Amino acid sequence: MDQIAAIAASGLHSRMEALDLVANNLANAGTSGYKLDQEFYSLFSAGEGSDIEGNSGTKLPVIQKQWTDFTQGALQPTGNPLDFALSGKGFFVVNGPSGPLYTRSGSLQLSTSGALMTSEGYTVQTVDGQTLQTQSGAPLEVTTDGSVTQDGESLGQLAVVDFKDRSVLQKVGSNYFGVTEAKVQTIPATDVTVSQGKVENSNVAPAESAVRLVGLMRQFEMLQKAISITTDMNKKALEDVARVGAGS
C-alpha cells in the first residue's frame, strides 16, 4: 500500500473512532451522572515486515485507548425526595445483574416491595452490603453522609465508595461502571457529601463537543481527499508508464 494512503487511512480510522466517542457524548449530554469519554492518541510503528511501501518504521496515527473524565457535573435541584446527588469523589453502589455496579446517577425510585432502586431495577446497597428497604410510605430523609431515616427510624446508610485508580473502571451502559478484575477493591469515599432532592448533570459541554464534532468531520473529509488525490496520482503514474512502454 502507498505510504501516504496508508497514513491517511489510519487517520480516517482513528477519526471514525473519535467521532463515535463525541457522538455518544452528545447523545448523553442530558443523562444524569454521565461522564465524558475522550480518546488518547499514539503512533503505531509499521515495521519492515508491513505491506506499506516506503521507509521502514512508518508512524501511523491510532487511538491507543479511551479514557473517562470524572470531573464533577453541576447539581440540579429536582424537588424529588428520591433524587440524590454526590458532591466530591465517589460512587453509589448498586446490585447489577452480574455483580456490583457503580454510578453517579442518584435518580432513584421505590419498588413495590419498598426497595430503593434505580430506574433499571438495580437495588441500592448500604454500607453493610444490604439492600435499603423502606418500612412504610412515609418520605425518606437523607443526611449529607448518606444516612437514611423514615419516620425517625434509621434504615441504613447509603454506600458511597471510590477507587485508588479509576482507570480500572469500565463503562456499563450510559451511567454505570464496573470492574473486571476481582482483585480490585473499593475504598471508602472521603470528602463527599450526599444531597437530597438533586441530581448530578452530565459533565458534557454540548457546545464544546459540537465544535469538536465539526472539527473531526472536517479532518475526516481532508483525509478522504488525501486518499483520493494519492489514488489519482498513482493511476496517472501507471498510465504514463504504460504510454512510454507502448511508444518504445
Report the span from N to C terminus: 29 Å
SSE order in H/E notation?
HEEEEEEEEEEEEEEEEEH
Name the assembly state. Answer: single chain
Strand content: 25-35%
Total beta strand runs: 17
Low-confidence stretches: none
| Major β-sheet annotation | 6 strands, antiparallel
Structure explained in plain terms:
This protein has 2 helices and 17 strands. Strands 13-14-6-5-12-15 form a 6-stranded antiparallel beta sheet, with no helix packed on it. Strands 9-10-11 form a 3-stranded antiparallel beta sheet, with no helix packed on it. With 248 residues, the chain is an alpha+beta fold.
Quickly describe the structure.
The chain is of the alpha+beta class and 248 residues long. The protein has helices at residues 3-27, 206-247, and strands at 36-46, 58-69, 75-77, 84-87, 91-96, 99-103, 108-110, 116-118, 140-142, 147-150, 153-157, 160-162, 170-172, 176-178, 187-188, 193-196, 198-200.
Features:
248 residues; alpha+beta; single chain; elongated
Write the layout of secondary structure elements.
Blueprint: H1 3-27, E1 36-46, E2 58-69, E3 75-77, E4 84-87, E5 91-96, E6 99-103, E7 108-110, E8 116-118, E9 140-142, E10 147-150, E11 153-157, E12 160-162, E13 170-172, E14 176-178, E15 187-188, E16 193-196, E17 198-200, H2 206-247
Antiparallel strand pairs: 1-2, 3-17, 4-16, 5-6, 5-12, 6-14, 7-8, 9-10, 10-11, 12-15, 13-14
Helix pairs in contact: 1-2
